[in-house]
Design a protein that fits this description.
Belongs to the GHMP kinase family. Mevalonate kinase subfamily. By secondary structure, the protein is an alpha+beta fold. It is built from 15 helices and 17 strands. Strands 1, 2, 3, 4, 5, 6, 11, 12 and 17 form a nine-stranded mixed β-sheet that branches. A four-stranded antiparallel β-sheet has the order 14-15-13-16. The chain has a two-stranded antiparallel sheet with strand order 7-10.
Length: 507
């Protein structure tokens, strides 16, 4: 019986760089772009002598990359050994498999559970991973088909299209060919989806199907998925990041404060030969002190992403440069971080205020949003005739100003550290976007650079913004906010009538 789980991609609206250090918070929106993992037995029936096996087979298929990898999994110490050429390996899925199987072995102590687990494992694991088109850049394919650079062209591509590699020069250096991505956190969403599917398949957690009116039940199960996914992701990427991308992949849109890196000290020490099961027991017993509080955009607002077509950025190298600058100029960097942190808090305050005002004065809120969506921001102030409307306008303008402050400090930080956090090309695009009718704010998500930019639009202004972007050679992506985190799916997304939430997006 196949288990299918999915996890969303993310957009970090505020908290770039700051979120690496406690107690700074980041606002992260999860999206309708989802990564899917399908787990089923590799062999239909168990061979009579299988009880004596000490190894089982694992097959990993990534149809979009036309890749298939095979592994041997040791049932004694849960380690994976690749039997495929090295270029087709996927360290994120490898760690996810090892950690999930180790977690199952650690959790199931009575004989019946152990036997059932052993029976499942000797049938082998057949894992397929698929990412929504929105994780990847299809700009080249659209141009190659002679189609216009529009959202409609993007929507006409088949779901889970094969992915091309960009081997062009970036920053003037020729890099090894890599997948052209849009910066939605594909490795975190993929790791979370694989962990959720595997833990569910092995009977360690019982996640639920996600319908619009229902949140995941059972936070203990989600917490377990989060701990394993966070650990696997950190160890696979070779460093302990802030973890906001994995957290949003598991729990959905949120205000996030990172965990203390020490919770993963045993996983880092595992390289010295500590058995994986001991590592996992230690990780699960640690005090995970991350904070994730519910947060999503106020009503009648839409998250948009536009791809400028200059390729993504290398987040680790940009983070490294910022850290180096912090060490070299501690006083100036501390001052700048404080100002950035204040601007981030201000944006959060204004967005929460707008959600509150929407709940208390719905008619006034609806009226203001529908008026402002047709106007540029300097004309908004003339739309308010009564106190509740004035309060709503004040919060809208406050959110805009906070975003301008965030961008200003991010640019200064990039200049000081010598990295393109908001490069000139992005500055021009973001300024033009913020001057469009009905645009509340625009920015570069996360660590910045040349990834897709984001905008938050009011009411019905979305399609006009996308059209204006098109005229600037910016491809409007089909990504929208979807506050839901990890979920089980009712079947293979390739065969479901509606392959993903993206297909229902109004362009």
């Amino acid at each position: 019986m196949a288990v299918v789980a999915s996890a969303p991609g993310k957009v970090l609206m505020t908290g770039g760089y700051l979120v690496l250090e406690r107690p700074n918070a980041g606002l992260v929106l999860s999206t309708n772009a989802r990564f899917y993992a399908i787990v089923k037995p590799l062999y239909e029936e168990i061979k009579p002598d299988s009880w004596a096996w000490s190894w089982t087979d694992v097959k990993l298929t990534s149809p979009q990359l036309l890749r298939e990898s095979t592994y041997k999994l040791s049932l004694k110490n849960q380690s994976l050994q690749s039997v495929s050429p090295s270029q087709s390996r996927n360290p994120f899925v490898e760690k996810a498999v090892e950690y999930c199987v180790a977690a199952a072995c650690a959790k199931f102590v009575n004989k019946d559970n152990k036997d059932a687990l052993h029976k499942l494992l000797v049938q082998g694991l057949d894992i397929t991973i698929l990412g929504s088109n929105e994780f990847y850049s299809y700009r080249n394919q659209i141009e190659a088909r002679g189609l216009p650079l529009t959202s409609e062209s993007l929507a006409s591509l088949p779901p889970f299209s094969s992915i091309t590699f960009n081997d062009e020069e970036s920053y003037g250096k020729v890099c090894k060919p890599e997948v052209a991505k849009t910066g939605l956190g594909s490795s975190a969403a993929m790791t979370a989806a694989v962990v959720a599917a595997l833990l569910n398949y092995l009977g360690v957690v019982h996640l639920s199907l996600l319908t619009d009116d229902q949140e995941q039940k059972g936070t203990a199960d989600l917490d377990l998925v989060h701990m394993i996914a966070q650990s696997a992701h950190c160890i696979a990427q070779g460093k302990i990041g802030s973890g906001f991308d994995v957290s949003s992949a598991v729990y959905g849109s949120q205000r996030y404060v990172r965990f203390s890196p020490e919770v993963l000290s045993s996983a880092q020490a595992a390289k010295n030969g500590i058995p994986i099961q001991e590592v996992i027991i230690d990780i699960l017993n640690q005090k995970w002190n991350h904070e994730q509080t519910k947060f999503s955009l106020p009503p009648l607002m839409t998250l948009l992403l536009g791809e400028p077509g200059v390729g993504g950025s290398s987040t680790p190298s940009m983070v490294g440069a910022v850290r180096k600058w912090q060490k070299s100029d501690p006083q100036k960097s501390l001052d700048m971080w404080r100002k950035l942190s204040e601007a981030n808090s201000e944006l959060e305050t204004q967005l929460n205020m707008l959600s509150k005002l929407a709940a208390e004065y719905w008619d006034a809120y609806k009226y203001i949003i529908s008026s402002c969506c047709k106007l540029t921001s300097e004309k908004w102030i003339h739309q308010a005739t009564e106190p509740s409307q004035q309060a709503i306008i004040k919060a809208l303008v406050g959110a805009r100003n906070a975003m301008l402050g965030i961008r200003h400090h991010m640019r200064l930080m990039g200049e000081a550290a010598g990295v393109p956090i908001e490069p000139d090309s992005q500055t021009n695009l973001l300024d033009a976007t913020m001057n469009m009718e009905g645009v509340l704010l625009a920015g570069v998500p996360g660590a910045g650079g040349f990834d897709a930019v984001f905008a938050v639009t009011l009411g019905d202004s979305t399609s006009n913004v996308i059209k204006s972007w098109s005229s600037l050679d910016i491809l409007g992506l089909l990504v929208r906010e979807d506050p839901h985190g990890i979920a089980l799916e009712s079947g293979d997304p390739r065969t479901n009538a509606i392959t993903s939430a993206v297909s229902s997006v109004r362009i």
